[in-house]
Amino acid sequence: MTGQAAGDSHSHSPQSLRSRLERIDRLLLVRLRSLGDSILTLPLVDALHGWRPDLKLDLVIERAFAPVFDGYPGVHETLILRDSASSGAAGWSKARMLFEILRRRYPAVLNLHGGSTSALLTFASGASLRIGQGSYRYARAYNIHLPPSSEIWGKTDLHTADHQLSLIRWLDLPIPAEPRYALTVRPEARNRIRGRLREAGIAPGRYVNLHPSARLLTKQWPEERFARLADSLASESGLPVIFTAGQNETQILVNIGQSATQKHIYWADLGLADLFALIEGCQLFIANDSGPTHAAAALKKPVVVIWGSSNWVAWRPWGTDYELIRSELPCMPCPGYTCTAYGEPRCVLGIPVDLVLEACRRMLNRKP
Fold first, then answer.
1. What is the pLDDT of residues 329-343, one digit of tens each?
2. For the CA atoms of 182, 184, 190, 191, what is the dihedral angle to 10 degrees?
3. Cα–Cα distance measured from residue 114 to residue 137, given in angstroms and rounded to the nearest whole number
């Protein structure tokens, strides 16, 4: 930590910060944690690149989400942080990451996460401009505190993409009316998926993709209902149904396969890049509130999302045509780690198959 960085004031006007940012050649974004958060950072990348195409924009990201930024326009370099349990995997340890950030001597760092690791990386960077939300923990890590997003935007019903764009808004920089916001699908991943579809006898672009897993139980629609939904969709539309899940979620697909009365495809072995390629080619994407739902939105696919405990205004699909099926309960939204109101998550358990099926019918019948 340099003496200059430590002595910087926390009070900067938007005009003075913009003036300082106009003179830098590199900016580091710290974007740790989830798939959805990573994907919803892309509009910010678009806005920064549109404002300063010459700005070298680097990102600290976690290894699991590297395909989100792989080949994305405007991204100069990704610094990949691996978790402590993956010592033999690609990416850097936390200690090596600290060294690399300090060695690069970034003039400015913008933290988009606010947790302890991201605060440490920001503080240790030695950057003259260390930018974070005023509400973040470890306030000493930042010498520029952004006002609350609701104050910057003048409203409270903000999407997460809006939160990510708060710096741009605060600085009165141009926000593209239609950000590019589209995942880059690698050609080799697209070729692998085409080969698997060919082996399964499925024509490209002629299938429905269901992703039935969720991170929290309060977002998880019952497996038996996913099975019934898939059976009905296959019968009515004639489209094959491909179920996907993470490698640690295989049991969900096993349970669905045991409940289904028709033959469907079940893939739990796709890496993230291949999952993007599969979603890219589907005719309709159906899922719970989950990271792959945001991937489908970023790939401009029609989406039907089955909603549970979380804030639908902040986390709904962004930038695509979608239908969101949710309950109306006074306890919604909630943190979702447990259901304190009823003992079981009635928000997601109360959604019937027929309601979701009707939404799928409407989406499949819409003209592009």
1. 999 999 999 999 999
2. 150
3. 7
Read off φ and ψ for residue 22, nearest 5 degrees. -70, -20
The residue with tokens 């909603």 is: 307
Q: Specify if 270 maps to a domain.
A: yes
**pLDDT average, residue stretch 52-77:** 95
3-state secondary structure 114-138: CCHHHHHHHHHCCCCEEEEECCCCC
140-170 burial, b at 16+ Cβ within 10 Å, e below that, comes to ebbbbbbeebeebbeeeebbbbbbbbbbbbb
Per the prediction, the chain carries an average pLDDT of 93
304, 351: one domain: yes
- In this structure, the answer to whether residues 139 and 203 fall within a common structural domain is no
Q: From residue 111, how far is each of 29, 66, 78, 104, 237 by CA, in Å?
A: 6, 17, 15, 17, 46
Token pair, residue 19, equals 């003036």
Q: What is the pLDDT of residue 241?
A: 98
Inter-residue contact 140 to 123 (CB < 8 Å): yes
DSSP 140: G
